[in-house]
Each structure stands twice: as C-alpha cells, then as structure tokens.
Amino acid sequence: MKKILTLLFLVLGIATFAQTPIYLNSNAPVEDRVEDALQRMTLAEKVAIIHAQSKFSSPGVPRLGIPENWMSDGPHGIRAEVLWDEWYGANWTNDSCIAFPALTALAATWNPELAELYGKSIGEEARYRNKNVLLGPGVNIYRTPLNGRNFEYMGEDPFLASAMVVPYVRGVQSNNVAACVKHFALNNQEKYRDHINVTVSERALHEIYLPAFKAAVQQGKAWAIMGSYNRYKQQHCCHNQYLLNDILKNEWNFDGVVISDWGGVHDTKEAISNGLDMEFGTWTSGLNFGQSNVYDSYFLAQPYLNLLKNKETNEDILNDKVRRVLRLIFRTNMSPDLNYGSFGSPEHAAAGRKIAEEGIVLLQNNNGLLPVDIEKTKKILVVGENAIKAMTVGGGSSSLKAKYEISPLSGIRFRAGNKAEVKYVAGYESPATKEQDVKDAKEPPQKKIDVIALRNEAVAAAKDADIVLFIGGLNKNTGQDCEGDDRNSLELPYEQDALIADLIEANPKTVIIIISGNAVAMPWVKQAPAIIEAWYNGTEAGNALASVLFGDVNPSGKLPFTFPVRLQDNGAHALGDYPGDGENETYKDDIFVGYRWLDKENIQPLFPFGHGLSYTTFHYGKATADKNKMTADEHITVSVSVKNTGTIAGAEVVQLYINDKKSALPRPVKELKGFQKIFLQAGEERLIKFTIDKNALSYYDDSKSAWIAEHGEFEAWIGSSSADIKAKINFELY
Ligand code: BGC
Fold first, then answer.
1. For residue 74, which atom of ligand 1 is closest to its CA?
2. Any idea which residues carry the catalytic annotation?
3. Is this structure's pTM higher than 0.85?
4. Any idea which fold 346-561 has?
5. 308-335 per-position pLDDT tens digit
6. CA 99–ligand 1 middle distance (angstroms)
7. Ranges of each domain in the chain
8. Which residue spans within 142-271 are E strands per DSSP?
9. Nearest alpha carbon, ligand 1 atom 7
10. Whether pLDDT at 284 is above 80
C-alpha cells in the first residue's frame, strides 16, 4: 500500500511539474520563459504591458499571473508614493527613505567601489518597496554650469562617468531591480528640454555624449534605459531611429527596455518603429482627474491597437517590445533569486555617509585653517541658510521624503558637543518657493527679505567668533539646482558674494562651504582662506560635513567638473550657442567640453577638473614604462610611485591623462584615460600601475565612422588633477 501511494505521489508530482508552464518555471532560461509567455498573450494583453496604467506603473498580465512593473525615481533615493494618476504625494506614512548623496557627490569620490555600494544600497531600498525599475542613474555630460540638473549626473568627463556608472548599475541590479539609465541622449540642459533639437558632430556624440551610456549597457548590462525629452536629427529622443535602433539596439546589442521619459512620447507611428518599448507620463486630457480611460489614449495604447487591427503595422515589432518587457519582468519580479531588500536601514545611512565623506572636496586650505582644532576653538559661528535648509526636498523628480536629514548645523553641533559654543545666524535668505516635488503646486506668498539687516547681523557676530563657517551655495529651488529650468548665471544667488566678502573681512578665519551640484563663481576666492565643495549629501549630510571639518575624515574628493572663473570660460557659452534659439541648438564646442575647452584656449580655471586637497601631502615619483613602443594589439604599463609625505593617513586619486603629440584630426591637449584612488598611511609609498591600450589612444573619425588609434608619439601624463601633472612619459604606437 505504502509503495503504491509513493508511486501515485510521484506520478502526480511529475504530471504537475509537466503542466507548469515554462514561463512560471523559475529554473527555465529567461529566453524560454519569454517565448512561452509571449505565445500565451492576446494582442490586447501585449499592447497593455507596453504603456502605463498609472503615473509610475504598467500592468502585467493578470490572467497569466505576470505581475505589474513599478518604477521609482531615482537616482538618489526611493521616491515617496504618489497618487495613482497624480504627481501629488499619496501621504503614506511608511515610505520615508534613506536619501543618498547626489550623483555629483558620488562622482567626486572617484571611487568605483562606492558606486557599487551606492547601487547595491539604493537597489535594496527599491526592492523592499516593491519597485522593480529604478529611474536612474543619470549620466548626461556636464556641458554648461547652468544646467539645472547637473547635480543628478556624473560630471563632465566621459571616462569618469563611465567608470562610475557601471558599478552603480551592477549594484542596483544585484537586487533584481533594473537600473534605468537616463536621459538618452543629449539632454544637457533643462531650458527648452521638451523640444530643443540638438545638432552635434558624430565625433562629439561618440567621444563625449555616448560613452557613459555605452558602458552602462555593455559593461553594466543595464536592463533599462530612458529616452530623453529633447530632439536629435529632428526626432524626439524617445522615438529616435538613430539613437535607439541604430546605435543602442543594433550597434550595442541592448536587450533591455527603452522607457520613455514622462511625457516624452509624441507620435504613435514613430514610437512604434523608432525603438521605444514602454510609454509613461503622457499628458492626455483628463489625466489630472484620474479618468479611467486616459491610459487607453496613450500613443502606444488604443491608437497602436487600431493600427495593428487594421494591419497597418506588423506584429513582429510589437513582439519585440513585449519580449523586452517580459525579459524585464523575468529578470526582476519573477526572477528565481528574488530577495526582500531592506529599507531605511542604519546600514544604508552609513553607506550614504561614507560616500558623502569621500565625495566632499577641499578646494582651498591656506595657512592650515582646516581641520578645525576643537580643543582650541571655543566659539564657532555658523552662517548661511544652507546650514539649516533641507536639501533632500526639491529639485524636481529626484525630490525625496527622507527618513531624516542631518543638517550641516546639526552635524556641527553634534560633533562640537560641549567643547565649543556653536551659534547660528542666517546671513541671507532665499524667497519661499512652491513645493518642488509637486508639479502643479502654487507659488507661496512672498515676504520681504531685509538683505542688509541679515548681513549686518552676521558680520557683527563674525567679529566675535574663533572661527566662522559660512554654509551657502545653491539650493533645490527653481532656477537653482532644479529640474525644469536652468540657472540664470554662474553667480551665487541671494547676494551671498557680498556677505562672504564682508564675513572674511570681519573675521579672516572664515571657511566658505558651498552646497551645490554645480560650479559657482567665487569673486572672493583670493581672500578666502579655506573653501569646501560639500554637494547635496542626503540623509547624513551634516555628519559627513562635520567629519571633514573637524578632521575625523581626511578629505579625498576630487572635482568631477571644472569650476570656471567666468561663464565665458566655458565653450558652450564662449561660442554663444547655449541655450539655442528655442528650437535648435548646435553644439559648436564639439568635443571641447569641460577641461578640454580650457586646455585648448589656455584658460586658467577657478578650480580644475580632478582637483581636491587633503590634510596630508603626497609626493609623486618619476613615471616609468615597461616599454617605449607598442603596436595596436599590445599595451604599455606605466608606473609611478606615490608617497604620503604627511603625518596622517589619507587618500589620493592618481589620474592618468593621454596627450597625442600629432594627429590628423584636432585633439584635446589631454584626456582622462585612467585613475586609481589609493589609501596610504602616513609615510606609506605605493607603486601605481596603469595599463594603456589602443582604446586610450583612439579618437572617433567621423569620415570613417570608426575609432582610430593613429601611429605616432603619445605622452602619458600622471597627476593629482587635470592641472597638476606630476610626471610625464613618452611612448610610441607603431
Ligand atoms: C524626469 C525623469 C523622471 C520622470 C519621472 C521626468 O520629468 O525627466 O528623470 O524619472 O520625470 O518622475
């Protein structure tokens, strides 16, 4: 009897197993699951899964038990829940996240391991909140300091952005959450972003604007990418034949989903044929009122279904989109090794703090004013609105509801404890603005700000302090570091320059701390003994800043973009093509973006790309190479020894730039092609090695549509910033 029963169970078990559809069998290969699910779906189900059903979700296939897709901004934390059809917050009480530092701060760490930690941590937060697509990271190149969204990106250099985006993507996706790399491509300003048509050379496209996206796709294996709002070759980038089909899908073999930016789709036929896979955020009438049929009016909804039914378009194209969406679902929500993630944890806060501490850049430190010696400092005066202003709120779609945010003032007070008195005066004030995360919010009533009275109060207090910590910069209000528009000028807003000058005059021991995601002008730079760029650092911002100010952490951040003296020192502005005429913009600066422009024009920056000081000092030895000639199939190893010559441990970012002595096409004086962040104890010395292959020597030749490594002489320049080259060595490609 027992034997018969066992046999029966076995047969039943096999029968049940045999009946399990392949798409539900988590051990089956993803592609088999995709094909199986696809052939079970009706036409209507196929069309349904390629467009939104709410502000941030798209349907699955309920009949087949295939779950919905849920997206979340991105890229600095998991956004609070919004109402089904609205941008308005849903007022949940369980969705307060850890806010991580802005991506500029991450890029300033020059530490790919921290990019992986960032990705892993934010991915865990997304997973816990049941989001399977994180709308980030952003890797649009920093072309002008006026771009309101630079804080969400990774700086001006394609090599640095590539090196940092790959581990971020891998970290996120290790949680079975897709990274959606944005905004592809040429979305380098907010002004006119919805329609501006960008004209750029093939060469600049390939050398400057595409590499970080390519690295994210090919090395990071990103599962999603977001098309941008702007146009290129007169087509919107969310349905752009050249960018999405020719380059992304055909040349780079991208097998993930192309997701539209919210409201970035404008035409059904183009959306069908030009590479878009999923449509979100389209503004159809009635959307704000939550009518049930609005999503059916999306370009890739009923209008698409009609074309299919009338045989005006071919189902193969639809099947390709559906396969991609199914692949996304099997890689994420229906993956066999799904974990539960974690949310708002101390570990995530600590990860954010570590990233913040390593990203803060010590720009200037004359007479050793920093770090603050707490034993000898009794009266600390903190001045400036940014010492108390919440910076995780505002800025547009990256705005967060943080579990907590330590302000700079709180961080300084915690650290000073009862050793020093910490007094605060505002010094300046920004006008109240509408809530930035609510797209339809109204302007609040304005009150009169007495600029002079605020300044006088701060200057009087400064005279009496042992040290003054001015904490200002930009903020997340419209016209500052904020989505939807650009800044008007390079200058600090709210008359901060006059305040800073007066503070330094009143008390020469004044430290200027800039919180921003962009370069700012510093007319007082020669008078300021110490200057720090502290970025938007999220939940642990104040603690991280205090650690650097008081020397618990030795600063090691380096600028991911140039600080020009004047706007005219930037190529896009010098040539007058920014912001375009409202319809068109030609990137006349071509490949000469950031330091490439300043080098070409021989302009001194305010602070160069790659610059950042430490509380210790480093000595670079002579560069040596294992050979002085190579063929295109070989590589050369260049070595340099770096020694910590100070008395405390510290980290240095050793940077490798390549200089091409002579070439058929004009080339930048130098280009970043390698970097290593090394931690050295006091007195410790280490030999750093860089491997140089033909990729580091190549440029993109438009006429041949190919990367060319030209024979001839090159130089490897090794330095501690783009303007502080410590060692050079010659070699030849033959
Ligand atoms: C932004 C995207 C964002 C999306 C959803 C758009 O306005 O450009 O970066 O992911 O909104 O909030």
1. 10
2. 261
3. yes
4. Rossmann fold (3.40.50)
5. 999 999 999 999 999 999 999 999 999 9
6. 17
7. 346-561, 618-733
8. 178-184, 197-199, 224-227, 231-232, 235-236, 257-259
9. 262
10. no
